[in-house]
Amino acid sequence: MANYNAAVPGNDTLSQAESSIQFEESKCSAFVSSTLDMVKMMNIVVFQDLDTTLPNDFKLTRNTDPVPVGYTKIWQGAFLIIDPPRSPTPTNVNVIAWRKN
Amino acid sequence: MNSRCLLATLALLLFCLEGCSTIRHGGAPTPAFNEEDDLKSLEEKYKESASIDAFYKAGQTAAARNAFIDGRLALYDMQYSIFVRDLSVDKQHLDAGTDLLLLGLAIAGTSTGAIRAKTNLAAAAAAVTGSKITVDKYFYFEKTVPALITTMDAERKQILAEIIRGTNLSIEDYSFRQARQDLDSYNKAGSLIGAITIVQADASVKDKAATEALRQLKAATPEQITASRAISTQFALLVKDPAANLDKINKILKVLDPSRVDSTPAQATDAADQLRAANKARQPGEEAKWRAAFASAGITIP
What we know:
The complex is a heterodimer of chains A (101) and B (302). In chain A, strand 5 and strand 6 form a beta hairpin. Chain A is globular, with a radius of gyration of 13 Å. Chain A has 101 residues and is mainly beta. In chain A, the strands form two sheets. In chain A, strands 1-3-2 form a three-stranded antiparallel β-sheet, covered by helices on one side. The mean pLDDT of chain A is 93. Chain A has one domain. In chain A, 12% of the residues lie in helices and 55% in strands. In chain B, helix 5 packs antiparallel against helix 7 (145-167), helix 5 runs parallel beside helix 8 and helix 11 crosses helix 13. Chain B folds into two domains: 2-212, no CATH class; 222-296, no CATH class. Chain B is mainly α and 302 residues long. Chain B has helices spanning 2-18, 21-24, 35-46, 52-57, 62-111, 115-139, 145-167, 176-189, 192-213, 222-240, 246-256, 268-280, 287-296; one strand at residues 215-216. Strand 1 (3-9) of chain A pairs parallel with strand 1 of chain B, so a sheet runs across the interface.
């Protein structure tokens, strides 16, 4: 299956970023990884096209958050998000992507 | 002894350098004619016809315009040829000169016994290397000179085609004023600043296209995600057997895009591919439209 890229804006909250990835996955794609684009202030997310298969549920948490029960870590890295009022501008945060077993 | 040794080495290297036609002529053979002399001859020959006065004195005809164009083109081309040659030679002189100077300093450095002299020569060698890097970075944009020359050539050819087309037209259809403007653009296209502007504009267009091609994801509500998964479940059932579901797929595609002609595409695989593409492009908030599309094919999305 082919991979493709999509952008998650750096001015989304962690919850918004998670939901936009979940929505993309709901169209038979699976999150693979993400890289930062510090010039355009966005996250370039790599998805795998699963054609007609829906992947299991996806979660995106900070690396300091508790491990979600029943999920397996599929990726960890830097992600650009905002966290108002503490951090109203895009900030580089260490996050973990999880997949439900 | 050391400074004498260094001077002798450098003199020998510079002597060798001076004799090298590859360095002197920008990687080209020795010219069969003197470009500076040619330029003077051309200036002399076209001094009259390439002047604005001559055009008005000759009765403002198409022939006078073309004579003006010919003269200006010849002069611009010769100047450009010299400019490009010097540009290439400058860069090569810089490289060769610096490398040879470094070699000389290194030789002198190893031949001296005094620690202080060695330190000074090492510092000099470092300074030469540093200067070259600075010149490369700020004046020659590292290895971009050939790319800039190619850009200048391409831009000049494009404008030249317009000018040549103009010379076949009447003075009313290709005015003297327009010809002067085109000639001015042609001359400016042969400048580094012009080439850099074009390269930057190209890069900007490419960057914009790349950004536009990258689909930006939108945040969704939990309800939208649940509905989207339900749509995809039904979508998967249809495209897994497109031949059996061709009619249903076409009905769905028709609702999603009312401008579509009924019963197209006729091929089941094409229909399935179009539904795949439409499903991938689906955005949060379009669930109602998709429910209606599936309903038209008798499929209920929970």
